[in-house]
Amino acid sequence: TESLTVLGLESSCDDTAAAVVRLVDGTEPMILSSVVHGQTDLHSAFGGVVPEIAARAHAEKLDVSVRQALEQAGVGLDKLDAVAVTAGPGLIGGVMSGVMCAKGIAAATGLPLIGVNHLAGHALTPRLTDRVGYPYLMLLVSGGHCQYLIVRGPQAFTRLGGTIDDAPGEAFDKTARLLGLPQPGGPSVEAEGRLGDPKRFRFPRPLLDRPDCNLSFSGLKTALMRMRDQLVAEQRGLTRQDRADLCAGFQAAVVDTLAEKTRRAIAIYLEDNPATPMLAVAGGVAANAAIRSALEKVCGETGIGFVAPPLRLCTDNAAMIAYAGIELFLTGARDGMTLSARPRWPL
Ligand code: KG4
Ligand code: ZN
């Protein structure tokens, strides 16, 4: 079998990214280049991603990202087999910029165009990095997403459950904001919590009384706000130790909840009798050492494998979009110039 080389574009949130991925001999994926231009600086003053600013930055950075990705890969447009682009879900302005850029390239070159679901990109990443075989269990945990999926194929996903309110990364970010710690909140709350006592404050363990795989994180934020306000009222401020204990208690609640719901998701997944059972994680929250080791422990207990791709491929990037494009291409999927941007697009 021949090689397949695909250019991928990603612009659905606050990273503008382009990448070239090649499937060598029909089996071995290789990342030839992966360029990511973040926008954190542009949004930091606003305490969140501002859609208008994001869309403008994507429109400005897409062309240069594509040029850099092709250059770094040492591949000309004439050596590509297809162009893959995130067509949703995400902020509509950014997704439209990406789709328009990809259409321009496809129109100029005659290359096939493939619209990719951003979540499918994350969900297929363990196949790009570790060639994990179908079906595997996937936990997507980022600032915007939290769900359990059984991944059966590039277009075959079974959703077992997910958050009914905030995503865990969002909860970390809000916790940091409430305690005056820097953004993104995940790394700062994790660092602060290392010095803390997770048992001093009693955080709830939401939805553990329900047998399903759904999660809820917004109650943790409310609990934290109450505890903080009480401390402020009693002692007119927070000490360093208070902050550390609050972070540790909050994180312990997230860890316990994710561990228990993962146990349940694994039980459902194992009913399929997969030959080589695997849990894979993706998303920025997978960077959290306590969460990672709790998941690894659950996998050990239940006798299944654990895969966590390198962080730069866990967070938003275009290599995952190019790779998903390759798998879709192989199933015969092609989109025409009618491909449209979809702000909402469940798997
Ligand atoms: O996947 P990602 O880069 O972007 C999307 O949300 O799509 O994830 C970013 C999220 C942020 O909410 C950030 O606070 C969180 O991942 N995060 C962490 C850690 N590092 C990043 N959360 C917990 N612990 C961490 N060490
Ligand atoms: Zn993402």
UniProtKB/TrEMBL annotation:
Claim: Cell membrane is one of the keywords in the record: no
Cofactor, free-text remark: Binds 1 Fe(2+) ion per subunit.
Catalytic activity: L-threonylcarbamoyladenylate + adenosine(37) in tRNA = N(6)-L-threonylcarbamoyladenosine(37) in tRNA + AMP + H(+)
Subcellular location: Cytoplasm
Residues holding Fe cation: 118, 122, 316
NCBIfam families in the record: gcp_kae1, T6A_TsaD_YgjD
Protein name per the record: tRNA N6-adenosine threonylcarbamoyltransferase
Species in which this protein is naturally found: Ruegeria aquimaris
